[in-house]
Design a protein that fits this description.
This protein has one domain (13-126). It has a four-stranded antiparallel sheet with strand order 1-2-3-4, with helices on one face. The protein is 38% helix and 13% strand. It is elongated. By secondary structure, it is an alpha+beta fold. Strand 1 (85-87) and strand 2 form a beta hairpin.
Length: 135
Amino acid sequence: MKRGFTLLELIIVVIILGILVSVATPRFTGGTEKSRLTEAFSLLGALRPANERYAAGSGGSYLVNGTCTGLDTTWTTLKNFGIPACSDPAAGIIRMTRTDGSYSVQINAAGCLCCNNIVGTPCAGYGMAVCPACM
């Protein structure tokens, strides 16, 4: 004998699926954002020593021209972050802002990485220290 689902059983299945989706979605999107951060951190990690070399050749002042052109390294444009910006002649800060404008990440001459919330992105939710935690 073939038996179909009752309305109550279908409602329960839909509720269970809704709960599973609501639990899984933040984990998936958080993991995606962490991979985007890894891309930015990789470039920031490569630019930091180039900024150190620049400072060594310019009497200790780091590049502050905004677009980091003038460093002895090249990079490709990232899909999820804008062009790196060099600022602060004393601390050697290099900053990259998320293309959707939600937050930026930065590294200083000492290698400290941190995150700036711009429109509510939870930096701590991505395992990031919020600036100026180590600046």
